[in-house]
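Deviation from plan, reported transparently: histidyl-adenosine monophosphate complex.
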Amino acid sequence: MPLKAPKGTRDILPADSARWHSLEAEARRLCRDFGYHEIRTPLFEHTDLFSRGVGETTDIVQKEMYTFNDKAGRSLTPRPEGTAGVARAYIENGMASLPAPLKMYYYGPMYRYENVQHGRYREFWQFGCEVVGSAGPGADVELISLLNMFFTRLGLPKTDLRINSIGCPSCRPRYHELLKAYLSERLDKLCGDCRERFQRNPLRALDCKNEKCRAELSGAPLALDHICNDCAGHFEGVKSGLTDLGIPFDIDKTIVRGLDYYTRTVFEFISGNLTSLGSTICGGGRYDGLIGLCGGQQTPGVGFSVGIERLFLELDSYGKAVPEQAGARYFIAAAGDGVKASAARAYAAKLAHNLRSVGLSAETDLNGRSVRAQMKYADKRRAAYVVVIGDDELNSGTAAVRSMADGAVTNVLLDGFVEYAMKLETEN
Ligand code: HAM
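Because the crystal trials were delayed, the predicted structure below was used instead.
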């Protein structure tokens, strides 16, 4: 039986990669415009980083990590998300000595052992931004405005932004007591996970996906109603910053997010169209305690991650055009006898090489096909120009260049071909 890709993973085929490239290029352009630089952290980290950073009681750590022991018996985990790795890298590389804030982004695959469904995979890609070393609401607003601009530039007509504040270590204990009092009256109706969460981290119960628990918890006290004055001031700053930039948002007191590191602001962009997805395209928030938790100096941070596959689904649902994959601009066809060396084939290979040397893309036949078959192939590859080299061309020193767009044919001296092509490109 032929082997299949593991459940929850997908191939990005050559025909799809043009749209992946164009989305990634847009993300990189946007980061440049906002002054964010790329950080690349390892695809796997010590398991402890995620247990500590993301949180022992989260679904990610309890159920979704692909943890394994390496040959020396170290427990390692393919990253389920990017923020903990960025925090570790920040500490390990002494980035606290760099001018603050540090504005970073990443673009790469993440791994979670999840129930696979539409828009939910085991290997998925995230584009994420993190601002480390800025405590004020301006950083939260900048990140949200970056996201808003990303979606606008991609031509998404609608995404819903929801924001909330879940407080800080000074107001949270009081809120936890209130929540625990509410939960304690309903413990026998909650699932095993929630009963355990009740002891260790009651806020996590609000994130439970079990329908019965969700119904029981619908009247639970909500963090936003119990935040301290400092957190309320921060939240006011976020709201007024967004209003000043004309970015619409809703306050959703029920957002808690599935990771433990969040403090104060949390936000999500929900699909504007794909109700079947019923999920977030992007999630983020502030994590003022994470760097301290990972062993660094207390340093504030805030960030987000966009799920790339979900973003594609959203773009598809609006019928957004997919860029087509094109081959090289020049196809140099050669007459000659099969794969056997011929003067024409050798010349075609050399001409393609010379074009590539000056930065022009060119292909030539690798399979010893007839000229007719090469022309068909060039057409399918969407070459812009095709040249046929045969004995006549070699004898006369000229060849006909056919523009595939309009069929126009131009005779060009072979000796000056590269210069001709370079001129053509600057004119186009
Ligand atoms: P998250 O909410 O776990 O946050 O994930 C962010 C986004 O990744 C989600 O909104 C979704 O679009 C996408 N995503 C998550 N899981 C899957 C999956 N199984 N399949 C497809 N897409 C998925 C984080 O990861 C945080 N690190 C965000 C953050 C950055 N907070 C601060 N900085």
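The chain has 15 helices and 16 strands. We consider this an acceptable substitute for the interim report.
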